[in-house]
Fold this protein.
Amino acid sequence: MLRLFSRLSFTFTILIFISACSTHQTVVEYEGSGIAAPEAGPTINSIVVSDDRGTESNWLGAIRGGYGNVLKTLQTEQSTDIIVDQMYTAALGQSGIYSTDIDGPYSLKVSISKFDCSYYFNREAHAHVRISLIENESRNAVFEKSYKTDETESGVGAGVFGDVDTLRDLAELAMNKTIDKMLSDDEFILAATKQSETAVGIRIKKLESLYREDLITEKEYLDKREKILSEI
């Protein structure tokens, strides 16, 4: 009887260990506030995200045991640059300053320097990015800034019982906050919604070309020209 109990205990321990040392595919999405920009309409028509973390492309984080050993690994279903691109696309679209349907003056570049999470004694998540607002015509950066969020939740070392979904939620929260910090930054909003002199000149030249080719009426030309100049 004792021998049977020992075998069952050993088998149970092995099963726990096997189930604990696992990889979990997960999804991270934008669920922030999408803070609205001033009524200038969309000005960004392209978003380019690069993963500069120096880790595996879909690495998100891990739950660790008492010796720091990895017990449960979190990976995003798609590569991190694609995931973050989708998050920024949703956020800027919701804010009203992004659309692929416009010949906008700006593109947004996002460099991810840190985006991960861990659960050892405490739950932690980090989201650090650097954004560059690029003028499409000149390819010059008109605005650059870094944004970061570091989240920490107290807890008891979870080990094999650490919850993957709770840790994923913390990572998602960190990136959502980082994105919203950009959207609530007056300096970024001003740069993103201000029409540069180069962009305005190009739009007026295109408008003049349409008028010369009799593709728009004089009234349409004057109305559109006034609208472009009012956005400066």
